[in-house]
Design a protein that fits this description.
33% strand; 3-stranded antiparallel beta sheet
């Protein structure tokens, strides 16, 4: 999952390699984006902390674990999006 400072988000999953998924996420994100989380056979999530004005990513075995991971990395904030692989 990739995000820009202005909130554009690129998501990609079920690719054969991490590099292919990260490139697809970057291609799906508008502006100056960076990859903030990658995951394999699990889920990824993005949280925005309006106090720090930062986006944080997390990953985990389930959507809930990915959301908690992102929230912990962000130091709190607002859940933005998540996605899980199909396997």
């Amino acid at each position: 999952m990739a995000v820009s400072g202005k909130g554009s988000i690129g998501r990609a999953w079920d690719y054969k390699s991490r590099s292919a998924a990260e490139q697809a996420a970057m291609n799906n994100c508008s502006g100056a984006c960076k990859v903030i989380t990658s995951f394999h056979n699990g889920c990824g999530a993005v949280v925005h902390n309006s106090t720090t004005h930062r986006y944080s990513g997390g990953h985990g075995e389930t959507r809930g674990k990915a959301q908690r991971s992102a929230m912990n990395r962000a130091g709190g904030g607002r859940y933005v999006t998540s996605v899980c692989t199909s396997n």
